Structure formats: C-alpha cells, structure tokens
Amino acid sequence: MFWKYVIAFFISMVPLVELRGALPYALASGIPTINAYILCIVANMLPVPVIFFFARKVLEWGKDKKFIGKFFTFCLEKGHSGGEKLKAKAGKGLFVALLLFVGIPLPGTGAWTGTLAASILDMDFKSSVLAVMLGVVLAGVIMGTGTYVVMFFSDLF
Length: 157
Prior knowledge:
Blueprint: H1 2-12, H2 18-28, H3 33-45, H4 48-62, H5 69-90, H6 94-103, H7 111-120, H8 125-156
Helix pairs in contact: 1-2, 1-3, 2-3, 2-8, 3-8, 4-5, 4-7, 5-7, 6-7, 6-8, 7-8
C-alpha cells in the first residue's frame, strides 16, 4: 500500500497530468478517499511556489540560448498573450478566472500552467496561490466524482 501512496504523490507533481491523473489512480488503487484527496492536493501544490518565482526567470534566461531559445520564447509569448486575453476578459475577476482555469480539468489547465500564467500576469503571490489551490480542490471534486461514477458503473457490468 505504501508504494501506491508514493506513486500517487509523484503523479500529482507531473506537469499536465497532476491531480487529474493522480486522484483517479489513488482512488482506484484503494487509497481511502480523504487520504487520496489530501495526498494529491498537497503534492500538486508543492511545485507552485517554485513555478511562481522561478519559471518565468528560467524562460527569460533561456530565450536567447541556441537550442532552447525558440521554445522558451514561444512559451513566454504564448503565456503573455494568453494572460493578457484572460486579463482583458476577466477584468477585476482575474482571481475567479484563474481559479476556474485551474479547476476545470481540461488538458493543459492545471496548477503548473495556472501558476505560470499568474506569474506572467504579475499577480501577487498570495492571491495566485489561493486561486490555484481552490482550483486544484475544484478539479479534485470533479475528478473524484467522475472516478466514483465510472467505478460504480463498471461494477454493474
């Protein structure tokens, strides 16, 4: 059982997969619901401060490097243009927009991407982390509910 916890923990920290993949794994593996939620949320949130404070700096550092420059520049431009569009649409509701962006479990909309967008938008750290954490919790509720529905119907057949 210990290794199931370890695997779920590390899946939660993988970009793009994050809690959206780890929670269904944890619940299907037999990890108790509360333990699975706490484990996956904590593990998904661990990289957030590092991403917020350093990812933008790393991208800016690498944008003029030979092999990685084009990709890093693309990431910065994409993040900046996407962030500006989000800011224009959200107006004063940027906190809620970030929460929903992270919380709706679609590919590429997790804590990693949301935190990077918040950093590029120069949002303050506390409100960014709170919005991302609430978004992760929302994604957890959606994914947990979906997992239990699938498990329920798979037991019927």
